[in-house]
């Protein structure tokens, strides 16, 4: 990027002597309002899509008066108060409203813009190094292109500030005392560059980073002197409607609660990123990778894409944590599933941690799961709640120990593995709503005597592991599930006429007849329940699947042949 800036400034400064003319530029407008000129030399117009062309030009395009052969006029300032804080603009030469007027007054004591500045049609303002406590009301600068307020005393940026300033292209608020920025500060206009480097921001909404539906070049939040909590107050969800994002962002030497893309993606999958976030680069220089669950989430992307949205310098391309991945290069982790599985985070909020049934809650994005491990406790029932999505802000738990707890909110989008191994559960009552997210329920080493009808809540489950059960029967609602999700192990049930339907269900659904899936009849030499169907053929046949199999099918077959 700095290379591109360099090219532009070279073009502008060397124009007249070397005869580089306007044919080096092509008119370009990101929004139909700004009239900018994009250098041909950058090859932006050979990009494959308009979004990418716009992104390329956003970084390099200049307004007309910055083109070769064009000039601007600086307006002078007269200080009108003894302390140097009040002023007015004066023009030594005659100015017409057609002049390209710049107001540059750096390293002074201004606290407000000169009293009469609204009567000038200012295009460029630079008040670096003054004492502005706020931006003030700048709504009269309707043609303003560049606003530089670096090194002042600003503390807050409101989303009213830039309303109506449709020509505004670039702002620089770096090295102020900004702690708060409204959400959607550039919502009304199409900004191309903004710099908030070296501030004290506590909370930052994604709408100020990945500005929806507007291509931008460069949002700089580097060297922020406070950890930043990312919010998503407008509930932006990439891929939900046709919203796209294409913004560069720089968070070098800053710490963030969550990667902005993770804040707006239900699931980071290549298809969504290709289509809805096709450009924009994320810079995170300053330290090596924390190879935790956040990076694991981004590892579902192509390696080049991972580097685009989370780029670091080459010498920072290794894991500095956790201990087991220390000093392994990010690429070696990327290609090794075993190592990627180790990229986990503990989730603290809403994890059941008290009493005789303590659990550990772990996010493991590589497998798209959250593991609730309550094994080896004295649980007699399931946890009533497990970590869930908070309703208020994306990360209401971002507190002092943000490195541990901050990841809860995106990991909970994943399936659940509930491990209740080695407990004292006798009644399996899966009535809690979270059971619809359970992929694996491990009940090994529990004296299960009863299973309630709510078992059908596990309609997303692949595995229900109950090898040590002491069941006499199954609830009727198991018919709604695939029989092969159950791992009955060696233990069977007493087979009778009353549960003959289980054998029919299993036969009809073509259940596996092998260990650990088979269900045996403990009262018939451990034969599978399917094998015993004949023995119970005197039971009420007409109400069963088997009737269809043994009577209807052969008849149909007979007439057909
Ligand atoms: C520019 O035009 C505005 C309104 O048309 C007028 O009020 C203002 O005085 C003009 N400024 C100069 C410097 O001529
Ligand atoms: C800013 O000033 C304009 C007049 O220049 C006025 O109409 C507007 O209400 C002011 N806005 C605020 C927020 O004070
Ligand atoms: C301006 O910011 C406030 C507070 O951050 C927010 O409530 C409001 O919705 C924002 N306005 C717009 C237009 O986004
Ligand atoms: C942010 O500012 C730093 C320091 O000035 C600079 O090196 C970096 O390129 C900027 N990032 C962007 C995205 O403009
Ligand atoms: C972005 O544009 C698309 C298509 O025009 C629209 O459906 C979507 O609501 C817009 N998103 C936002 C956040 O404005
Ligand atoms: C990891 O790398 C750093 C810097 O290269 C080195 O100082 C450190 O000893 C290494 N640690 C281990 C455990 O290899
Ligand atoms: C993945 O990493 C593990 C642990 O370092 C190692 O044992 C294994 O061989 C690696 N697998 C591959 C395919 O490199
Ligand atoms: C539970 O106990 C088993 C057997 O003693 C042990 O292998 C396992 O690591 C324990 N699990 C946990 C989470 O402590
Ligand atoms: C549950 O935990 C036990 C040990 O604590 C482990 O052996 C078993 O593999 C775990 N089950 C699942 C499904 O991960
Ligand atoms: C299962 O638990 C729910 C809520 O705790 C309760 O209403 C229901 O009666 C229980 N079902 C059985 C069969 O115990
Ligand atoms: C049936 O299986 C159980 C559990 O493995 C075993 O204890 C029992 O001896 C088996 N019965 C027969 C007759 O094989």
TrEMBL record:
The chain crosses the membrane at residues 544-560. InterPro entries: Leu-rich_rpt, LRR_dom_sf, LRR_TM_domain-containing. The keyword Membrane applies. The keyword Nucleus does not apply. Keywords: Leucine-rich repeat, Membrane, Repeat, Signal, Transmembrane, Transmembrane helix. Residues 1-17 form the signal peptide. One of its GO terms (cellular component) is plasma membrane. It holds the Pfam family LRR_8. PANTHER family: ANTIGEN BSP, PUTATIVE-RELATED (PTHR24369), CHAOPTIN-RELATED (PTHR24369:SF210). This is Uncharacterized protein. It comes from Mytilus galloprovincialis (Mediterranean mussel).
